[in-house]
Design brief:
This protein is mainly α. The chain contains seven helices and no strands.
């Protein structure tokens, strides 16, 4: 499996960009008119993704970049930024989405993450691609393996958040297709 992961995994910089895009897409689904339950599910999805992402960067990406680029200030700046993201996540998790400060805290988290993403994508990732070109694939495979370990222990949380963030129309369409399939299979005698 290790060689399959190595062959199929994107480079570490592309994995980081994918994580950034996924969290930003989750942020874009959070609107003032969204139900409280969906707001909470979106916030929890974003928080989980951010926790996993920060852990991966700190364990794999930052140490590799530090070896070659001790002058890349964004690496050192990233640790306090991750700490602030974790603080906001903890604060959000201690609130109800009905709390007056819930949305404000989530928006603060969004601003901090967007600033962090901008720093990484304009400075840190290009530096890594310049300094570590021969290691990006191996680091990507290592990040993929570690992510699979992370997800194994949090699969239930991830699945529950994903289901809760889907539009109601997706549930209706899926239910309709399942009912139609059951009806068709029942009539044809297929069992």
């Amino acid at each position: 499996m290790a060689t399959l992961i190595g062959k199929l995994s994107p480079s570490i910089t592309n994995l980081i960009r994918i994580d950034h895009a996924q969290v930003l897409a989750t942020f874009q689904q959070y609107h003032a008119g969204t139900s409280l339950a969906k707001k909470q599910a979106l916030a929890e999805s974003a928080c989980l993704a951010l926790e996993l992402h920060a852990e991966l960067e700190e364990e794999i990406f930052y140490p590799a970049l530090r070896e070659l680029a001790s002058d890349v200030g964004v690496v050192e700046k990233s640790f306090p930024e991750h700490a602030e993201v974790r603080r906001l996540i903890t604060r959000l998790r201690g609130m109800s989405p009905a709390d007056a400060q819930y949305e404000t805290t989530f928006m603060e988290l969004m601003r901090d993450v967007m600033h962090h993403v901008a720093d990484e994508e304009t400075t840190l990732l290009p530096a890594a691609e310049r300094l570590l070109p021969e290691r990006l694939g191996d680091l990507g495979a290592e990040m993929t393996r570690r992510r699979l370990q992370q997800l194994a222990s949090r699969a239930g949380e991830l699945a529950a958040n994903t289901v809760r963030t889907l539009p109601e129309s997706a549930f209706l369409a899926t239910s309709g297709l399942m009912a139609a399939g059951a009806t068709l299979f029942g009539r044809s005698g297929v069992r």
